[in-house]
Amino acid sequence: SVSSIVPESCLLIVVGLLVGGLIKGVGEKPPILKSDIFFLFLLPPIILDAGYFLPLRQFTENLGTILIFAVVGTLWNAFFLGGLMYAVCQLGGSGLNHIGLLANLLFGSIISAVDPVAVLAVFEEIHINELLHILVFGESLLNDAVTVVLYHLFEEFASFEQVTVLDIILGFLSFFVVSLGGVLVGVIYGVIAAFTSRFTSHIRVIEPLFVFLYSYMAYLSAELFHLSGIMALIASGVVMRPYVEANISHKSHTTIKYFLKMWSSVSETLIFIFLGVSTVAGHHYWNWTFVISTLLFCLIARVLGVLVLTWFINKFRIVKLTPKDQFIIAYGGLRGAIAFSLGYLLDYKHFGMRDMFLTAIITVIFFTVFVQGMTIRPLVDLLAVKKKQETKRSINEEIHTQFLDHLLTGIEDICGHYGHHHWKDKLNRFNKKYVKKCLIAGERSKEPQLIAFYHKMEMKQAIELVESGGIGKIPSAVSTVSIQNINPKTLPVERILPALSKDKEEEIRKILRTNLQKTRQRLRSYNRHTLVADPYEEAWNQMLLRRQKARQLEQKMNNYLTVPAHRLDSPTMSRARIGSDPLAYEPKPDSENLPIITIDPASPQSPESVDLMNEEPKGCSGLPPSPEEDEEGLVMRVKEPSSPGTDDVFTPGTGDSPSNQRMLRCLSDPGPRPEPEEGEPFIPKGQ
């Protein structure tokens, strides 16, 4: 019941405090967590477990965000904290005046890094969603390179009499050497492990040993040259896993999985217990000003760093980080045993204030692990942050994932845009064509990804069926794994593919070659300045516009016959009256100087039947209309039928002049539509 409220890491620290107090109570000296034991024996199993089972897809998709948090965020925390602590030491009185800028920057680099052990211990218990988990945990893994560089840099600078600009430039370049060098060492050992596992089909018992051996060798080789051992372990685990799992038996895979989980769990337990024991056993120097300032500035630096970096990152992310996500990222920046071990490594000769640094580091670790670790679970529930959904992957999901990957790669290819889908596809093709053939034995090297995933799921379901007692339902066939373990492999039988005739095959190749091969040559990246103008495009646009206008006019005319009228003497109403019953308005004898509207009786509603030939708007000339003109009204003439073969829409007529088009637009405005009075006819027959 206690572990549901208090995280396991907090309980283990309490156990360590009690054990240390008991040892001290009986007059013995409690053991202290030495840095060599921590870095050589306790830390590697935890990092190997995290790197070997790293969710690679989520990690690579969010790699840019993780790197910004890990590199820029850690640098910001270190320099912000170191600079403010130097100001506190200068203003803090006689006890702190002797601490210089380099010592404070070194202290800032130790305390600024997020600890992967503490993050794993807390985040796996609250089951946070995959995005937040991989962002915080990925940051805690990758910031090791920054921490190692800054730690060794400021430790070296402390022994110098004068630090030059060249030293600072070399220190900046050493970051790339440490991080990329660690990754390179890990990749080399990962490839060697994968290649070795290709030849272990006769000695299945020692297969798991190669995974642990080569991973540990990668870590030791990186530490030997002051490179990032954590980066080397992660790189070796990520590189070797897909090839090793294709070569080894299922029993070896199960052994690796459970042994790594057990080994990392034991290391984690020992680390937190030793933290509690070392707190009791160590020498402490308490300074209220220094300790409280450290704690306060750690929280401020973390919050400011996350807010500013997230504001910048969200400009480039498709899935934005919400304020809730930012709060969890900032609140989940836990410190742990790496900071304590780095502080314990400090030399008394150069850093006489080591005891005060260790006291402040332990205070920050206890605050983050106890206060933040205990309150993050209720805060996640309170903010309704999305939890991790435990769902089994299915063939359907795998097919759609691969389909979307191919689709996005094709879209990038057509656009000429080299995005991460393009490079991922290139890497997969290179892996399939060359690397798999070298590192995977037998026909598994040619097996498609979907088939391999299907075999893995089939095996998993069979094991679950056996464990649940459903062995009777399985047909009495010998397991392929048991055959693989007992007998050496026989030569694989070639899979039967549906045969295609040579003509059919050549036809398919021709279609693909003409349509797909020269895609990038035909359609380069879109640029409006390099597009070739189409000579027919303008004419077609004009024709389409005229046809669209004609349709709009037709719709309006149809609407006028079904909506209330504005005024009986308005031009629009006159056109509607004429269209409804042209025989009610006979031409008058003295109407030669009046505007003429030609009507096509066959289609009185169509806009082409109205032809404004010589109509002048009464009011555009500036003279008021005479009463005689008002009395005479409108004169109509029957429109002559058009010659055969002409198009009313595309053949320019007399009504296509700019003035007539303006008049047409003027007359097509129905104006406001008041409700008709009761009993008033909609279209009267005569006046």
Automatic annotation (TrEMBL):
Residue ranges of every copy of the Cation/H+ exchanger transmembrane domain listed in the record:
6-380
User: Disulfide bond: present as a keyword of the record?
Assistant: no
Entries under InterPro entries matching the protein:
Cation/H_exchanger_CPA1, Cation/H_exchanger_TM, NaH_exchanger, NHE-1-like, NHE_CaM-bd
The UniProt entry's GO biological process terms, in alphabetical order, are: regulation of intracellular pH; sodium ion import across plasma membrane
Record's NCBIfam families?
b_cpa1
Which source organism does the UniProt entry give? Answer: Scytalopus superciliaris
Q: What is this protein called?
A: Sodium/hydrogen exchanger
Topological category with respect to the lipid bilayer? Multi-pass membrane protein
The Gene Ontology CC terms held by the record are: basolateral plasma membrane
Q: Where, by residue number, does the polypeptide cross the bilayer? A: 6-25, 37-54, 66-89, 101-123, 168-195, 265-286, 292-314, 326-345, 357-380
